[in-house]
What does this fold into?
Amino acid sequence: MIRFLLKGLLRDKSRSRTPVMVVAIGVMLTVFVHAYITGFMGDTIEMNAKFSYGHLKVMTKAYAENMSQVPNDLALLDVSELQNKLNKQFPGIIWAPRIQFGGLIDVPDKNGETQAQGPAIGMGLDMLSGKSRENERLEIQKSLVRGNLIREPGEALISEQFSQKLQVNPGDEVTLISSTMDGSMAMYNFRIAGTVSFGAESLDRGTIITDIEDVRQALNMYDAAGELIGFLPDGFYDDEEALKITQNFNAGYADSSDEFDPVMKSLSQQGNMGQYVSLLKVWSAYISLIFVVAMALVLWNAGLLGGLRRYGEFGVRLAMGEEKKHVYRTLIYESVFIGIAGTVVGTAFGLFFAALLQKYGIDISGMMEGASMMMPSVIRARITPADYYLGLIPGLMATVIGSMLAGVGIYKRKTSQLFKEMEA
Amino acid sequence: MKLFITILLTGITTLSFGQPGADEILEKVDRNMSSENRIFESSMTIHGKRNSRTITSKTYSVGDKKAFTEYLSPPREQGTKMLKLENQLWIYSPSTDRTIQIAGHMLRQSVMGSDLSYEDMMDDRKLTDTYNAVVVGSEEMSGRKTWKLELKAKVDNVAYASRKLWVDSERFVPLREELYAKSGQLLKRSTMSDVVQIEGRWFPKTVVYKDMLKQGDGTEFKIIEIQFNQELPEYIFSKAALKR
Amino acid sequence: MKTALKLAYRNLIGAGLRTWLNVIVLSFSFVVIIWMKGVLVGWDHQAKTDMANWEIGGGQYWHENYDPFDPFTFTESHTAVPEEFKTEIAAGNMEPMLVVQGTIYPQGRMQPVIIRGINPGQNIFKLPTQKLDTLTEAIPAIIGSVAARNLRVQTGDYVTIRWRDTNGMFDAAEIIITGVFSCNVPAVEAGKVYIPLEKLQSMVQLEGEATILTFRDSEKERPAIENWTLKPQSELTKSIDEIIQTKTAGQSVFYGILLLLAMLAIFDTQVLSIFRRQKEIGTYVALGYTRREVVGLFTVEGAMHSILAALVAAAYGIPFLAWQAKAGWTMPMDVSEYGMAVAQTLYPVYSTGLIVSTVFIVVLTTTIVSYWPSRKIAKMNPTEALRGRLQ
It folds into this structure.
C-alpha cells in the first residue's frame, strides 16, 4: 500500500509538490533561524573567547589567581613542550600562546631623542608561525586602517587613535619600554606595520599588537607565555566539551601543589562568563521554542489546507465504496511521507544556508561607522547538532496533526457533501 | 691614620658631650662614606617569587651628582648603561640603540625588578639639607653600639617624611635605615652589613633593601670591588658616552 | 468598502481553525518583534541610565589634563573648583571628585589602584557613599564587588594603601572597607577605591581641588570653563550606541525571517481560498463587480488576518509585554572586561513609534502577500470561473 500511496503522491504533483515545498520552506526557516539565533546570541561569547578567555585557557596556577593583574612574572614556561603535550592529549584543538603586557611607546625624532611617548597595552600574538590563525581569528585585516598586517619579525600594529596621538605612520620605528618577566627594564624596537581600530575606547587609546616571538625577546620570556588559549575544533564554544577537557587536563596536576604548574580553565570558568553561558543556553532555547511553535502552527495550517483541497477526491473515493477509516488512514500516511520528505529537504536547505552564513556571515559593517575589532561586523550562524533533528517537530508532527484535523471532516460530512465539494 | 683620627675624634666628642649631636654624626658618616669620586663593581641579587637573579655592574661616580653605570651581566643586561647627571637620568639599551630619559612617573619604576626605584637612587641632596635630625638614643645592633637618629623632613619635596638611622658609634657607618611615610608607616628598610675597611674608610659591603609593604626577601646589593678618588675622565659623564 | 470589510470578516471567521492558526502566528510576530525591539531600546536606556547613575551623572567637566586611560596624567589633573560652581555644589547638584594614583597592598601583594575622593553626602551617584561617613581610625573606603574579588578583600578588612602627596612625598595608611557595592558599570569599580573627598584632599594636600565635576542636570546649557573640558552625557555614552547598533542589525534578520514565516502561512491560505472559491469569484463578476474590486475583496480578506492578529496580540501581548517591562529580562552581556555598561536585567521599553511602525510593517506585508495570489483573479475567465472550472 505504501508503494501505491507514494505513486499517487509522485504522479499528482498538486498533492505532493506544493505541500512538500511548504513543509520544506517551513523546516528550512526553522533550522536556519535556530542556527542563526545560536550564532547571533553566541557572538558575545565568541568575541570574549577571541579576545580574552579562549574556549579554554591554560595558565600557571599563580597566574590564574591573579588573572586580572596579568602578572607576567607568573607566566607559563616551556610553552612549546606544554603545547606538544596538549596537542597530543587533545587533538583538533588549536592552541595559541599569548602575552599581555603594559609599557610605554616611545617615538624618536631624527636624533634618536624622545619626540612623543604614551602608555600602551600590549598583546603578543602568534602571528608568524602560521599555527595559531590569530590573524583570522581576530579579523585584523578587516579592522586595519592603514598599512599592512604583521608580515615579519620586528613589526607591530598599533591602534589608529594611538598612532595619531604619537604622530607615527606605518613604516616608522618606535621603541617599547616595558619590564621583563623579572621586572627589569626592557626596551625593544618595533617597526609599525599598520594601524587598526578596535572599537573600544580603552583599547583604541593605546594598544600595540606584535608577534609573540618579539614580545618573548623583548620581555625576556623565552618559550614563555602568559596564557595558552585553546579553541575547539569547530570554532564554536561548547560548554560541556570544554568542561570535560578542562577536567581531564587538570586531573593530571591534581596532586601537585606547585603554584607554577599549569591549570586549565574553560571560558565559563573565567570572569562572569559562566553565568552568561548558562543564560545563553536557556534563552536561545526560548527563542527557538517560540519559533518552532510558530512554525508548527503554520505547517499545521498547511496540513489542514492540504486536506481541504482534497475533499472532493475523498467524496469520489467514498462513493466508490472506500471506507471512511481507510480514506482517513491513507490521508495520514500521505502526510507522514510529505512531512518526512519536506523535513529532509527543508533541513538540507536550512543547513546549507546556515552553513553559508556560518562560513561567510552577513556583513553589517555598512550599518556602522567603520569596521573595528571589538565590534562584530559580521553576523554568523552556528550549526549545532539540534539543527539536524529540530525540523522534525514542525515538519513532521505539525503536518501530520494538520492532516489529522482536516481529515476529521471526512467523518463529519456526508459522502454526498464531500462529493459535491469536488466541483468546487 | 685617618681611622685613628676618626676614632680619636669620636672619642673626644663622646667624652666631651656624652652624646654627639645628630648633625655631627651625619657629618661624620658623610666624611667616612663619601669621596671625591669612586669606581665600584657591584652585584645586585633580586629575590623573585620564582627565582633569584644577580646583576653585576660597574659604576663610576663623582660626588652625589654624577654617576655612570654599565651593566656587565647577565648577558641580557650587558651593555645597558645608565647616566645620572644632577636630577636627570638616561638609560641606553644596546639592543635598540636608543637613549631614553627616565623622567616623571617612570622614575617610580623599580630598578631591574628590585625593591629599589630609580627615584630612590636619584635623590642626591644631603640628608642634613632636607631633614632635621636628632639623636634619640643608642642601641646595640649586630654586636655594635649604634646611635639611633630620627630624621624629620624640613622640606616638603622629599619622598619620605621621616627616616630612622642607626649609625655605628665608632666607625660611623650606618647599619640600618628605615624610611617612613607621612602617616608614620614604615615603607622601606635597608640593612647594612659586612663592614670592612677600604683605603682607610669603613664601608658596608652588603646592603639589603626591602619594601616593607610587599612580601618577599628584598634586594641584596653587594660591593665586589671599590676604589676611591681615582682619575676619572670627564667624558664618561656625557650622553655621548652612553652610545660608546 | 464597508460590505467588503464585512464580507471579508465573515469569510475569515467562517474558515475557523485555519484563520486562527494564521492569526496566532501573525500575532506572535507582533509580540516578538515588539518585545525584542523593546528589549534593545530598554537596554539602551538602561545602560545609559546606569552610566548616569553610577558614573557620569548628567554630564561632567574634566580637568583638561585628565585622561582616565592614563593614570600618569592624574598628578597634573587637578585644580581648584571654579568659583561659579560653588552654589551648585552647595545645593548638592554638582559633585567634585579628586582622582589620585596610588598603590594597594592586599596581603602583601602590590597593585596599582586609583583612589577617588568623593563627598560622603552626595546623592548624584548611586554609590553607597554614606558608608564613608563613619568614624574609624583607618580611612573608610568603599569598593566594587569585582574589584573586591580581584583584591580578595571584603567588608571589614583592613588594607594598606600608599600614595604620594602633591609634592611627591610618600604616605601610607590603612583603609577599612566599609562597603562593597555591585554595579553594572565596570569602569566605576575596576581598580578603584572610593574614600571621603576631604580626607583625600588633605592626604595629598590639595584642599579644595578636584579632577572631575559631575552635574546632575543634563538639560542645562553648560558654559566652557577655563582649565576644564565639558563632557556632555551624549559624548560619554557614545560607546553604548555602537553596541546597540550591532545588535539591532543582528535582530533585523530575525524579524525578517519571522515575518517571512507568517507570510508563508498567509500566502498558502490565500492560494487555497482563491482555488476553492472560483465559483464565488465568478459570481461576483457576474453580479457586476469589476475584477479589480474582486481582487480588492480578497486582498482585504487576507490583510484582515493582520488586523485580527493585532487584536489577538493585544489580548495576550499587552499583559505579557507589561509584565516584561516590570519584571525585566535577565541577560548579562559580558563585554564588561572592556568597560561597557550593561545590566544583568533589561527592562524593555516600548515607544508608541515602535508599536505603530511594527503594526504598520506587518499589516503592509500581509496586504502585499494577500494581494499577490489574488492577482490571478484578474486573469480569470469569468464564465469558466462561474462553472467552477479549474484554471
Q: What stands out?
A: The first strand of chain B starts at residue 37 and ends at 47.
